[in-house]
Amino acid sequence: PKRKPSTLLSETTVPQLNEEELKSVFSQELFVFRCDVSAVQIPSAMAAYPRLRALEVLLTADDISNLARQIHNRFRADKDKDSIMPHVLTLINDLKSGAIPGHPLASVHILSTLKDMGDFATANQFWEWLKDQGGEYTDARVYGAMVEALAYQGEPLPKLEAMYQEAFERYSNTPLVSPEAAKETGATRIMLLQGIITARILNGEWRSAYEAFDLILRLYPTATPSRVYELFIYDRPLQEGFMVFLMACRAGSPPKGTVLTPLMKEIWIRHKDVGAMIRLLWAYVGAGGKVKVPHLNLLIRAILMAYPPKARDDTRQALMEHTMGFRSLLGFVRECITAFQWLGVAVDASTFNTLIGVAGKLKRGDLVLGGLRDMIKSAVRPNDITYRILVQVAGDLEDEQQLIDAWNMLVNARVEEK
Predict the structure, then answer these.
(1) Residue 15 near residue 27 (C-beta atoms within 8 A)
(2) Sign of the torsion angle spanned by Cα atoms 269, 273, 274, 278
(3) Cβ count within 10 A of residue 77
(4) Are 99 and 53 in contact (CB under 8 A)?
(5) Would you give the distance in Å from CA 187 to the centre of its chain?
(6) What is the pLDDT of residues 301-336, one digit of tens each?
(7) Which one, of 149, 233, 227, lies nearest residue 194 by Cα?
């Protein structure tokens, strides 16, 4: 019997041929096509696609799913609509004509690509055809992708809720099941829930959005994609975003580093809470997230800026205690740098620029010199930003000679660049 097309990403991405395909005189061409798709070499893959499509028996539903997924990934990376749109239209036309086998995930990625492009007219036309097709082209995930696309078009929430319920009724594993019962069956797919969560958030229905969020976490506690968490992180108050970020990490689905960066910035701007920033980093790394230099720089800046300035009327004893405390703080900063290096983060000029710039704002000339010494020891070359920061630091320290020296270094560096 013919094997049902796989719906798992791990089972559809490895370029390989089965025994029957190996016997074909076109096996090498098919293998190269699959390698191109796997490597996101879309121009090469689409150059071979028409010939393989004409052979009919070679391209499988998984091939079409993978091709659509990688076309979507290429657009996400390049944002080049002019180069990607012809390929999307080719797939749509070939699916409609039956020239290639369908796959629900191919439909999902085509709709999602069109949504990301903002080409809602084409997405809506494709959906009008898809909604009348069978399981080869459409399932609950496709409904979810279209609910999300319609939500971004501003469609009324009642219409989207009706589509959500229709998907439950249409794809439940039990005949004549109620929508409520369907929520506990295979009809409840992650993408369907993601779609309705998006729709409810965009319409300000936070209570029902959280209800769907709770449902997806109960049904798929370790498989909920980070994108679902990000919807709440970006669109809810900071305190809620903070808790949702920690929930994502605890579930093993850490959001992208580009989500962590603005969250850390907002926590510092609004609350000056270094402990909360460290907690975010701790949870993120523990969940397998990859920290980067910007995260280290934000942490260094927060640690140093959070230390209280010394008062003008402090006693000698108080000043000594303040100095000792600041030295301990610098030791903690070095420990943070070491920890990041252990995680594979290579310190670059931006880290030292952050350290030197903060030292200037704190009016700590000793820390400025220490930062420059550490920069030289680490064999990190100062850049144009470094010299501009040194000019600013000289102004903060009200050091006229240092201002002249820093300005000369900046001019000489720019001359060397030319």
Answers:
(1) no
(2) negative
(3) 9
(4) yes
(5) 27
(6) 999 888 776 655 666 666 676 667 677 888 888 899
(7) 227
Both tokens of 234, joined, read 């970006």
Angle between helices 140-152 and 104-117 (to 10 degrees): 10
| Alpha carbons 45 and 364: distance in angstroms, whole number | 58
Sorted by sequence, the CB contacts under 8 Å of residue 78 that are 6+ apart come out as 84
* Whether 40 contacts 78, CB under 8 Å: no
pLDDT of amino acid 352 = 92
In contact, 407 and 391? CB cutoff 8 Å: yes
Dist. CA 330–CA 357, nearest whole Å: 15
Average pLDDT over residues 288-311: 88
Can you give the three-state secondary structure of 254-299, one letter per residue? Answer: CCCHHHHHHHHHHHHHHHCCHHHHHHHHHHHHHCCCCCCHHHHHHH
pLDDT digits (tens, 9 = 90+) for 149-188: 999 999 999 999 999 999 988 887 544 444 454 444 444 5
- Residue 139's nearest CA partner among 116, 173, 105 is 105
The answer for residues whose C-beta is within 8 angstroms of residue 8's C-beta and 6 or more apart is none
Buried b (16+ CB within 10 A) or exposed e, 89-112: ebbbebbeeeebbbbbbbbbbbbb
Query: Rounded to 5, what percent of the chain is helix, strand, coil?
Result: 70, 0, 30
Q: pTM of whole model > 0.85?
A: no
365-404: pLDDT as tens digits: 888 888 888 888 888 888 889 889 988 888 888 888 888 8
Six-digit token string for 364? 């700590």
192/139 Cα distance (integer angstroms): 9
How many residues in total does the chain contain? 418
| CA neighbor of 228 nearest in space, from 197, 258, 206, 199 | 197
**185 neighbors 174 (Cβ within 8 angstroms):** yes
Q: Locate 348 and state its tokens.
A: 């670059």
Contact 236, 206 (CB under 8 A): yes
Buried b (16+ CB within 10 A) or exposed e, 227-250: bbbbbbbeebeeeebbebbbbbbe
Q: State the alpha helices, DSSP H only, in 39-103.
A: 42-55, 61-78, 81-97
What is the DSSP secondary structure assignment for residue 9, as one 8-state letter? G
